[in-house]
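Objective 1b: paired records.
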Amino acid sequence: MKAKEIKLIVKDKYGEIALQSKNQNQSSCCGSSGCCDDMDYTIFSDDYTRLEGYNPDADLGLGCGIPTEYAGIKKGDHVLDLGSGAGNDCFVAHTFVGEEGKVTGLDFTDGMLEKARKNLEKTGFTNIDFVKGDIENMPFPDLTFDVVISNCVLNLVPDKEKAFHEIFRILKPEGRFCISDVVLEGSLPVELKEAAEMYAGCVSGAIKKSDYMATIEEQGFSEITIHKEKQIIIPDEILSNYLSAGEIEAAKQGEFGIFSITVNATKPISV
């Protein structure tokens, strides 16, 4: 698919997901329409309920890690959350920056932005805002942010090189990012990779881990570290929609796999 088509698919899917609760996402990413073959988005997600700042109304179970955990956010920092959705990671990040800092969420889906802003209204916080924009062409000046976080979003971006270039551009010197994302080991079968439903479900938009890490390094980042890595186990009943029995067995034998990683890196002080 062309980049424009991919973005339209992602925007449409997440616009529908924005109308649902976390419980609904556990049964089907598109509700009664069944357009995602009963894909359970929450098979990727970590448990946020123990975290300070957790807002259950903002948790749609769409993440694949907890990027604030290794972001090194300090009081007074300006944090940007890429693909902020209903605001889950923004509200957690707010507990780190305090009233002296600021949190900005960027998303290109109107439904998600509307949901995030409604959740924000309930908090009374005045130092969080949600902005509409594209990760490949962010509406921010150079050197704006201290920290960038993102949770299971960059894998949906068609041009990852451009995305990391933009992250580098808008970070201040010695600024850092911490991103949870989905990557691949081995070669994912074509049938799975090209399925639009699974693309919006964070699988076939992913690239090989080695390519992902190389892209980060090529953009000039330093101190690149993977803090967490776990294999994503997709139930056979979902895989059977895309793979043969032999291919499912090959996945179990480790010939290919889907993993979530949480990685951070720093923008050098002189570039």
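Objective 1b, second protein:
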Amino acid sequence: METPKQLKEMVREKYSQIATQSKEANATSCCGASSCCAPGHGLMADDYSKLEGYVSDADLGLGCGLPTEFARISEGDTVVDLGSGAGNDCFVARSLVGEIGQVIGVDFTEKMIEKARFNAAKLGFDNVEFRFGDIENLPLESETADVVVSNCVLNLVPNKQQAFNETFRVLKKGGHFSVSDVVLDGVLPDDLKKEAEMYAGCVAGAIQKDEYLDIVKQAGFENVTIQKEKEIILPDEMVGAYLPKEELPVFRAKVKILSITLYGEKPAN
């Protein structure tokens, strides 16, 4: 069993590789930086291209939802994006906060930070910044953000309770989050869960849906609501690489992999 430190290094290495690839290369594999499933599935990513503020160079096709679409971002807000990658959600958020707001992206992959800063510089944005840091120990002062967003990142964090505790800390009183993430309904087979390629970009870092919701509530959030839910259907040829063919029908019947967009509020008092 990998330690939390080993898992983080695995993810960091994988996403450093992803940072140098095109969106097309990432979108045609379930794990971004590998070819662990057949091309053309586009398993998780939603289409950002019609959202205001979309920047194609910042879209690596790695998300599993559109959290900024549901995040109730207002002009003048300070928005923090956890696991900001090349800046995709940050630039969409910037179109909503306007010139008087602020957007801060946090990522622990240096190559992603470099790519995001390059994209921001090309756009001439002076109210979008990217900080190198760990989601379990955010490089932000308490009560910094009006809104926190994240897209298919927290499932990669070993200590999810600490990640949501940190989210709670950096939100202002009365602030809120909207995150898209992958959760499970049913138990993922061990052979699938322990596979490194699966962990660094697909579903093996995901936990049970009920457990995920409990972690959010234990962090202190109120009015926790699922804003959107969709099932992710892994292709037979991909699952078949990890399970005997005769076990596939049982897997389909007992296990659902879900992308959820989740909302929660920090109490105002």
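The chain has one domain: 4-32+43-265. The beta strands are 78-82, 102-107, 128-132, 145-151, 171-185, 222-232, 256-265.
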